[in-house]
Design goal:
Layout: E1 4-8, H1 13-25, E2 31-35, H2 41-45, H3 49-54, E3 57-59, E4 66-68, H4 70-79, H5 87-96, H6 99-108
Parallel strand pairs: 1-2
Antiparallel strand pairs: 1-3, 3-4
Helix pairs in contact: 4-5
Length: about 130
């Protein structure tokens, strides 16, 4: 199983934490992370910026296949040995039809802090009103 490119939201603190944890667990070098907030990433990937921002995406350069949302999570768990026990659960969630709506619910509620809006006092969070 070859490495995959993981397109994550570099403006999302939760997403950045997840990337850092996965990087520590990825001793086999099967994940390469790219922030969707870097200029030109969407164009080079051939995916609209809105679509990349809505869900986590992964791409396999070896096969050319893409996965998004819950299926991207499944692709990641399949490549990290310590996460293998979760792969059947994530896959079952996707196959049952429940995984994607739950994933989308969580993804829509993530905090996004644009670069340059933080100072020594912290970062303003969006009003969830």
């Amino acid at each position: 199983m070859g490495p995959i490119t993981v397109f994550h939201d570099g403006w999302c603190p939760r997403c950045t934490q997840a990337r850092e944890r996965l990087t520590r667990l990825d001793w086999l070098g099967r994940l390469e992370f790219v922030s969707i907030r870097e200029q030109g990433v969407a164009e080079r990937a051939g995916v609209s910026p809105e679509r990349l921002a809505a869900r986590l995406h992964v791409h396999s350069p070896r096969t050319g296949l893409w996965a998004e949302g819950i299926w991207a999570v499944a692709a990641i768990t399949a490549r990290i040995p310590l996460l293998w026990p979760f792969w059947p659960l994530v896959t079952l969630a996707g196959l049952s039809g429940l995984g994607q709506p739950v994933y989308d619910f969580v993804a829509r509620r993530r905090a996004i802090v644009p670069v340059g809006q933080c100072d020594e006092n912290g970062c303003p969070l969006p009003d969830r009103g």
